[in-house]
Write a structure and sequence with these properties.
16 strands, mainly beta, YmcC-like fold, single chain
């Protein structure tokens, strides 16, 4: 046993004193981690340019969505900050919130690709993802080309609505105070399995920028985009709805509030859907 004890003792001395060849090695110091190579970084210049609102194909984003049939109180005017800019507080935690994963996909991957030759990507038009909006993105605008059901033959019936003229949802650059009207007509369309024809009129206004507080995030210089949509079917009554969409550079839409049908005010206080980026 003694030789083993002696060897252990000598080894301990060498380790403590640091002597002896090959017992120390020159190693590189820990280096700083390289930051990720982001394709888009917000520059907070007061506007959203075309390259700051690109669709991330195949990358899901998590949203908290109010359940169908539940009405939420909203304050779209916000409160004034020290500078006078609005602060929108949408940070409440609701036990009834549902989680939706919103993901853009290539039009070429869908059954309706031949109906939208200029379509570049599709994204859910409703929180459940059963209906998809079809879009084209250019340097001038983000265009809505129409709406189609995700499945070609769903239980609720096929939907295929192709606008004869694309709707310019966002004109670039998005700057507070700008507004425009876009009209799209549908002929020989199908809505939930039934024949459809009609005209949709979009009145769009970019409101002031401000701070948006969510449960998981706080965004500075968020752009509020107000949409007043009038749907006029060739048969049946017209339907009017209003939306407020909150957009942030490189993130896209980070929150949304949808009014009850027939709403007359942009700053409505009751929402049939509230959608917020979060988990």
């Amino acid at each position: 046993m003694r030789p083993n004890l002696q060897a252990s003792w000598v080894t301990a001395l060498l380790l403590l004193s640091g002597c002896g060849e090959n017992l120390t090695r020159d190693r590189d110091p820990v280096k700083e981690t390289e930051p990720p190579n982001l394709s888009c970084v917000p520059n907070l210049d007061g506007q959203i340019d075309s390259d700051e609102l690109q669709a991330a194909i195949g990358v899901p984003a998590s949203y908290l969505v109010s359940p169908p049939g539940e009405t939420r109180d909203v304050n779209l005017k916000g409160t004034a900050s020290d500078t006078g800019a609005p602060i929108w507080d949408m940070s409440q935690d609701f036990a009834s919130d549902q989680q939706a994963f919103i993901e853009a996909s290539k039009v070429s991957d869908h059954w309706f690709k031949s109906e939208f030759p200029a379509g570049e990507f599709a994204a859910p038009a409703d929180a459940a993802g059963s209906l998809l909006g079809v879009y084209q993105h250019t340097d001038e605008a983000l265009y809505l080309l129409g709406i189609a059901s995700k499945e070609e033959d769903p239980k609720a019936g096929k939907t295929l609505l192709v606008y004869n003229s694309p709707i310019a949802l966002y004109k670039f650059p998005l700057i507070a105070g700008t507004s425009w009207i876009a009209v799209g007509e549908v002929q020989n369309g199908t809505a939930y399995g039934l024949p459809y024809a009609g005209k949709d009129t979009y009145e769009i206004e970019v409101g002031p920028t401000g701070q948006l507080e969510l449960f998981d995030y706080t965004f500075e210089q968020v752009h509020r985009v107000k949409l007043h949509v009038v749907q006029e079917p060739s048969v049946g009554q017209s339907v009017t709805t209003r939306q407020s969409q909150f957009l942030f550079e490189c993130f896209g839409e980070v929150a949304r509030a949808v009014s009850k049908p027939g709403e007359t005010k942009d700053d409505f206080t009751q929402a049939t859907e509230v959608r917020r980026l979060g988990q």
